[in-house]
Amino acid sequence: MDTQNARIQLESLRTQLLSRLDRIEGHIRSDGEALNQDSEEAAVERENDQVLDGLSLHDREELSQIDHALGRIANGQYQVCSKCGGAITADRLSALPYTTVCTGCA
């Protein structure tokens, strides 16, 4: 995978994640504004918020990995394994564009 295509793919993933995070945060804020709930509805909303918080955390971690990969592209280290210094194959980068390790080190 050439780095130009990787950068485009990573930036697209980044945009998608930021959009999803905005929707999740908007949903959590709007749920907090609902005042007239009985205890059963409130319990369901708390469970939903916990799921959304988990998704948000996962998305933020993925966003961090994407930002790191974009930095690796910028400094010429994108296709270099961070553990052994060997090459990360194009197939691996296509499947997991923000990986930092080769298949052998994974």
TrEMBL record:
Any one GO molecular function term: zinc ion binding
Keywords: Metal-binding, Zinc, Zinc-finger
Zinc finger region(s), dksA C4-type: 81-105
InterPro entries the record matches: DksA-like_N, DnaK_N, Znf_DskA_TraR, Znf_DskA_TraR_CS
Keyword Zinc-finger found: yes
Name the UniProt record assigns to this protein: Transcriptional regulator, TraR/DksA family
Organism superkingdom: Bacteria
Domain DnaK suppressor protein-like N-terminal: 10-73
Listed Gene3D superfamilies: DksA, coiled-coil domain (1.20.120.910)
Domain Zinc finger DksA/TraR C4-type residues, every copy: 76-106
